[in-house]
């Protein structure tokens, strides 16, 4: 399986986590009385057949149920991630299963899976899985890994640090967004990260992401809402592109509201009469109906492979949760 297919599967997993529904799969609900071993056996049967089950949400439901009723069973999912014989697609599903359910006692073993002796896609996937876990040992390890020779691992570490508010890592991923030949999945991951906590300097990335029809509607909606919050009218041309780009009507409606807010804000600022020694701040526009902020468990999109000019190497990546 190609790296692009594997990364796409991570995006599918995150979409399922964010929306609570699969893409044409099971709609079953949790069954509180189930035996833990039976829950794991059902989960394992699903992830061992990723071609048939990757676009369902049943395996994520089962992981959620194990987390609530038998959290010790989650260590068996870590076993699947750690097993060198695990198929990349199965590993991707296992990483997606743990998104939002990482327990403190699982962290030491997961950190071991970032060791340089292991293949890089597993390492990068675990970094993204751990990115929301607010423990000092995780951040310390991410800081080590930004110097890793493997580009996939380095990219994942910078994303994880940027999500924790690291200004230098944020600058790195902003620049990587515009690297030649960077896979679209990497670009979406960067846009998703920046849109969670938009800051001045993010406009260029978010403006392009808002108009990118290849990105998920959730990512585009987050980018549009972030642009309004930043209040920079220079992004108006990019938002106008959203109105004619491919994508769901909801994204276009959000872009239309965003345009109205920014244009009104710009008009208010230019028509105001400043006092001689004053500068008139731009009026604060009310944010348009924003896409639902992803829950902590939905946060990470995938841990992609090396950006920049390197040829993609086949392997998997994940998503994470706190």
Summarize this, please?
By secondary structure, the chain is an all-alpha fold. The protein has 16 helices and no strands.
List the helices and strands and how they pair.
Layout: H1 3-19, H2 36-47, H3 50-53, H4 58-69, H5 74-82, H6 88-98, H7 107-112, H8 120-130, H9 136-145, H10 151-163, H11 167-177, H12 184-196, H13 203-210, H14 217-230, H15 236-242, H16 249-271
Structural descriptors:
single chain, 322 residues, Leucine-rich Repeat Variant, globular, disordered N terminus
CATH top level label of the domain at 3-199 and 293-298: Mainly Alpha
Estimate the strand proportion: under 5%
Secondary structure class reads: mainly alpha
User: Could you give the distance between the termini?
Assistant: 29 Å
Q: Which sequence of SSEs, written as H and E, runs from N to C?
A: HHHHHHHHHHHHHHHH
How would you state the average pLDDT, rounded? 80
Number of strands: 0
The major pleated sheet works out as: none
The CATH architecture name of the domain at 3-199 and 293-298 reads Alpha Horseshoe
Could you tell me the radius of gyration in angstroms?
A: 21 Å
Helix fraction bin: 55-70%
| Total of helices | 16
Q: If you consult CATH, what is the topology of the domain at 3-199 and 293-298?
A: Leucine-rich Repeat Variant
Query: Regions with pLDDT < 50 over 5+ consecutive residues?
Result: 1-28, 269-322
Shape, principal axes of CA atoms: globular
């Amino acid at each position: 399986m190609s790296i692009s297919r594997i990364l796409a599967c991570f995006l599918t997993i995150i979409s399922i986590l964010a929306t609570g529904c699969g893409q044409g799969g099971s709609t079953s609900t949790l069954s509180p009385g189930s035996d833990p071993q039976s829950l794991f056996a059902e989960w394992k049967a699903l992830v061992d057949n990723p071609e048939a089950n990757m676009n369902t949400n049943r395996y994520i439901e089962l992981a959620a149920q194990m987390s609530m009723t038998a959290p010790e069973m989650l260590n068996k999912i870590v076993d699947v991630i750690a097993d060198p014989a695990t198929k990349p697609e199965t590993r991707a599903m296992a990483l997606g299963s743990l998104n939002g359910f990482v327990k403190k006692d699982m962290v030491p073993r997961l950190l071991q899976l970032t060791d340089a002796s292991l293949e890089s896609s597993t390492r990068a996937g675990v970094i993204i899985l751990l990115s929301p876990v607010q423990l000092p040992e995780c951040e310390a390890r991410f800081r080590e890994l930004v110097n890793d020779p493997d580009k996939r691992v380095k990219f994942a570490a910078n994303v994880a640090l940027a999500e924790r508010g690291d200004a230098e890592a944020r600058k790195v991923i902003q620049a990587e967004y515009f690297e030649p030949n960077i896979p679209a999945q990497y670009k979406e991951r960067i846009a998703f990260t920046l849109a969670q906590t938009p800051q001045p300097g993010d406009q260029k990335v978010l403006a392009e992401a808002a108009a990118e029809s290849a990105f998920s509607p959730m990512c585009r909606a987050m980018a549009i809402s972030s642009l309004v919050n930043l209040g920079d009218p220079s992004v108006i041309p990019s938002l106008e592109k959203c109105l004619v780009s491919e994508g769901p009507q909801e994204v276009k409606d959000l872009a239309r509201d965003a345009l109205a807010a920014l244009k009104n804000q710009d008009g208010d600022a230019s028509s105001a009469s400043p006092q001689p020694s004053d500068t008139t701040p731009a009026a604060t526009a009310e944010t348009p109906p924003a896409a639902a902020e992803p829950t902590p468990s939905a946060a990470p999109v995938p841990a992609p492979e090396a950006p920049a000019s390197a040829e993609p190497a086949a392997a998997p990546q994940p998503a994470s949760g706190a």
